[in-house]
Design a protein that fits this description.
It is a single chain. The protein has 148 residues and is mainly alpha-helical. The chain has one domain. The chain is 85% helix and 0% strand. The chain contains four helices and no strands. The radius of gyration is 17 Å and the shape is elongated.
């Protein structure tokens, strides 16, 4: 039973981490080369593609991480708890910092764009790096819990 839970957890964790890693690695490191209109278009597209599925995948991932911890042995338990902490950090950064910034950016019009929009973009990018590497660390701890 535990192996099935861990397998499904690892799969969902791979999806969550993959979204964050893929976005950072392929796109957001280049945000500084896009105009505001391009960034808004990209943000709208990404939000429409990810908002609903990531809610389901992220919550399911956290629930299954909890189950994995509950049923695991001592060493696996601690690695899983550390993994959960990093994944929770990544998800909190998403919900508390990045989503509100995204919502502001996509709502701007040519008349409401703040003069410091680039610093807002840079703040989002700063937290995106932290989120990405928190998720990667969480994935690594959970993988270590079940592999070693």
């Amino acid at each position: 039973m535990l192996q099935v839970i861990q397998f499904i957890t690892l799969f969902l964790l791979l999806l969550v981490t993959g979204v964050f890693w893929g976005l950072w690695f392929s796109l957001s490191r280049s945000y500084h080369v896009f105009s505001l209109q391009e960034l808004q278009h990209i943000a709208r597209t990404i939000i429409s593609n990810l908002a609903v599925p990531m809610r389901f995948i992220s919550v399911s991932c956290l629930l299954l991480l909890s189950l994995s911890a509950w049923f695991s042995s001592n060493r696996e338990f601690y690695f899983t708890i550390v993994s959960m902490a990093f994944i929770l950090m990544a998800l909190l950064i998403t919900v508390v910092i990045e989503v509100p910034i995204n919502n502001r950016v996509i709502a701007w019009t040519e008349f409401t764009v703040p003069s410091d929009w680039e610093s807002i973009r840079n703040r989002w990018q700063f937290f995106n790096v932290i989120r990405t590497f928190a998720a990667l660390t969480g994935f690594g701890f959970f993988a270590a819990a079940i592999l070693f």
